[in-house]
Amino acid sequence: MYTVSECYASDFAMDASSAKDFPTSPDRVRIKGRGGLELAIVRSSSPVPATCESPRETNHHWWDVLKGLGRRRRKSTTNAYAADFLDVTWQLNQVEKLSEEKTSEEYVTSLAYDDTGELLAAGCKDGKVFVYRRQNEQLQVDHRSDHSSNGRPFQLYSCFQSHEKEFDHLKSVETDEKICRLHFLKRPNRHNFLLSANDRNVKLWKLSEKLVEFDDSDLLTNESARSNLTKTSLRIPGYRPTDLTVAAVPKRVYFASHNLRMNALSASSDLETFLTADDLTVNLWHVEVPDLSFNIVDTKPDNIEDLAEVITAAEFHPSSCSQFAYASSRGSVRLCDLRSNSLCDHHSKLFHDNKNDQPKSFFSDIICCICDARFSYDGQFLLTRDYLNLKVWDLRIESRPVETYSVCEPLRGKLSKLYENDQIFDKFECSWGYNDRFISTGTYGNYFKVVDRISGHAVTLKTTDSTRGRQQPRRRKNSVGSKVVRADEPNVDRLDFRTKCSHTLWNPADHILTNATGNGLNFFYVRQNGCEQHGQAN
Fold this sequence. Notes:
The protein is mainly β. The protein is 9% helix and 37% strand.
């Protein structure tokens, strides 16, 4: 039996207004919340007042008891979760270097896991896609040391050139080969399908495994051999086993339907459609129809000078194929439903923080721009990242986020310098952890932050970018198999703004966090009390 704290209030807000979920006759009420959390309220401990005449009033009284119970036990519950989170050790388990090029620009531009957590795809600025596959065996950890007995849990599975640099002679526009978005489709059969997009085009790739090859040793290649052929010497060609090879075959090319650069790619749960978005429009595609798309959102005004905001991110709901959300540069998120209208210019819900306590300044409209928006795995929450904050929105509450976490508050005093260098327009992705308990995002100096939503505690971690000539201080250096030292809040006066951790992504099936720094990938996993957390929630 668990006791819920106030952070779970939003999970039961919808149930509190439903009479059938809060029976009034039994002496004991049991309700179930997120993550299998179960609560019991005994009627005798708080009798229903005589003023509660209708069933709905009685149900709301039960809800008041529930909230009061959470407030009374909040301190002890939160402290227990905090101790559990602070006992976690983050370990750098694997580092993959994708390029030998030494440059201040990011080489890895996009990350994507498949729904099973077995495959990881990394898109690069030169148009290449690296696909890593997790080994079948679980990570085996030697408890006598901090090193994993299996040092490389992810092995290179395939590498192929997805896009090439192109030039549109009609529009005189050059399209870079840089991969801006990747997305795995849910596996319909034994093959894997990957969507990759640059600024204009989307391609569908089929990743198929080959364990056999054609054996042509028995073929008769000359006339003399054929003339001496008898019934006993006749051999039928066949196949012979060979080493595993992975073939990446382009199945579809979805040609440019956007006049601006694409910034979003998301597949629907129906396994048939996906959406793409640029600054002004959102288009809907069918996987089998590469030459036709439907415009479902168009924010372009009649007069372009009246343009007030642009689209910055878009994503389908994880379980409802008709719902999707798109974020804007004004800090708002709109939830749309294709069942109400095929052209979703009028949203179903608008999520905007109406109680922002920060004073208005010249940079307010810039730093409130949402860089990334992600649905939780259960589809009840939405995670957004602006320049300085992570926000968690309950889909039932539009007026304010239910959780707000500062990523790097000291940067607020450096906004003028960042604006002069155009670094204030940098984008950082966010990610939900396995079981929706953890959320993470990156920032400058190769720092990244992980937040435990239950306890409200956050930890700032740092990884070393080994591609740069100047190494980080020795006490900050991390090697494969070593513990990751928890860092204090970054000192903005010494922060290297040329290095940043823009891409962080959790494995959807395990406590493994992947981020991209420079031209490499870093795989972190969680250990607690000398054991690795594997395959189950805390």
